[in-house]
TrEMBL record:
Source taxonomy: Bacteria, Bacillati, Actinomycetota, Actinomycetes, Frankiales
Organism: Pseudofrankia inefficax (strain DSM 45817 / CECT 9037 / DDB 130130 / EuI1c)
SUPFAM superfamilies given in the database record: L-aspartase-like
Domain Fumarate lyase N-terminal as annotated: residue spans: 89-293
Keyword set, alphabetical order: Lyase
Protein name: Fumarate lyase
């Protein structure tokens, strides 16, 4: 898949596409029907895989307008095309939102797995940069101006901290199934179990819910039709990622300016050129990462707005708002993660330029030290002559602590 409006979209592959969603919805319906059959609520199951294929996506999408979502049209097709006594039992006891929510969780689980792998690569690359450059002198800058000396290792450790924070936020996200029926009571499924002769129909349906949830590999949860924490938490975790990557891209774009020249993106033939200026080597990866970082927070805020307006037992419109929002946020986060990994793997660091710039600005970079010395003298503090060092304070200690955290994170994932 590619998107002319979002260069690089093909890096997300088939994640959260229409075809992937169709497959995921079929998986949810199959898991539920199988569970009903095993529980003795349905007389038999039926095979749904492949009964509705990607070639029919356009027709299903058109039919979705009549119900406001694609599930009723799909259910009609599955019941019509499935074979055997289980065919009429497709979707019995569920509601459309059960299928939509659970299938979206399946799609997002694949997104989470992809981004986690990218984040591990980024942690490794950033740890290597922080370690290699923990003594590389760099002019620290605040509010765009020279401030005090620092090291490029400390800057890389700061980038690393952001990525680790985002990775840990993503690890905390729960991925539950949604099986609640029309209004969260599963009353239709319980009634069917009663009519099928179950002495304890509630237990039979509860067992089917647990069975279907396990078959999908999701976390058990009570119905969450109007408690949308699953999607807001995931949205926030994805934005934590784009925030961290955007911060890295912003620094790289700034430090790769010709008048600074301390960093450069990986050199790739044909990348970074201009339609009219042959000398240009634009920091395209950083530009595209920043694009994602600038647009992602608004998408996450849409999820929060939808959650706040999820009224009654199932919402009208708020729930529907989530689908394209999650698709765009998820795919854009995957693309930004890929761009960031590529950027970090091949980042060019000009240590000589960093040191030369810092030494040229040394009177400004050490002005704070002079003011501290003047204050100390006026206060009668001991200390003697100002030492001839690089005035780096706790920089190396911070780098060491960040590297230890990165090592622990990588070790936990082995």
């Amino acid at each position: 898949m590619s998107d002319l409006f979002w260069p690089g979209d093909e890096r997300a592959g088939e994640l959260v596409t229409g075809a992937a969603w169709l497959t995921a919805m079929a998986r949810v319906e199959q898991a539920w029907l199988d569970a009903l059959a095993r529980a003795g609520v349905a007389p038999a199951s039926a095979e749904l895989t492949g009964l509705v294929g990607p070639a029919e996506l356009a027709a299903v999408a058109r039919a979705a307008e009549d119900a406001g979502n694609p599930v009723p049209a799909l259910v009609a097709l599955w019941r019509e095309r499935a074979v055997g006594p289980g065919a009429p039992w497709v979707h019995r006891g569920l509601t459309s939102q059960d299928v939509i929510d659970t299938s979206l969780v399946l799609l997002l689980r694949d997104v989470v797995d992809r981004i986690r792998a990218q984040q591990r690569d980024q942690v490794g690359a950033l740890a290597a940069l922080a370690h290699t450059h923990r003594g590389t002198l760099l002019a620290g800058r605040t509010l765009t101006q020279h401030a005090v000396p620092t090291t490029f290792g400390l800057k890389a450790a700061g980038w690393l901290t952001g990525v680790l924070d985002a990775a840990e936020a993503l690890d905390r996200v729960a991925l539950p199934a949604q099986f609640g029926g029309a209004a969260g009571t599963l009353s239709a499924a319980v009634e069917l179990a009663r009519r099928r002769g179950h002495a304890d129909p509630v237990a039979a349906v509860s067992g089917a819910v647990a069975d279907a949830t396990a078959a999908l590999g999701l976390r058990p949860a009570r119905p969450w039709h109007t408690t949308r924490t699953t999607f807001t938490a995931l949205g926030d975790a994805l934005v934590a990622g784009t925030d961290a990557w955007g911060r890295i891209a912003t620094d790289v774009a700034t430090l790769s300016r010709p008048e600074i020249g301390e960093l450069a993106e990986p050199a790739v033939p044909g990348r970074g050129g201009s339609s009219t200026m042959p000398h240009k080597r634009n920091p395209v990866l950083s530009v595209l990462i920043r694009r994602a970082a600038l647009t992602a927070p608004a998408l996450a805020s849409t999820l929060h707005l939808a959650a706040a307006l999820a009224g009654d037992e199932r919402p009208d419109g708020a729930w529907h708002t989530e689908w394209p929002t999650l698709r765009d946020l998820a795919r854009r986060a995957v693309v930004a993660a890929s761009h960031t990994s590529e950027l970090l793997r091949g980042l060019e660091v000009d240590t000589a330029r960093m040191r030369a710039t810092a030494r040229a600005a040394w009177p400004l970079l050490t002005a704070e030290r002079g003011s501290v010395a003047a204050f100390a003298a006026s206060a009668g503090l001991p200390g003697g002559e100002t030492p001839e060092d690089d005035y780096l304070g706790v920089a190396d200690t911070v780098v060491a602590a960040t590297l230890a955290r990165a090592d622990a994170y990588l070790a936990a994932g082995r």
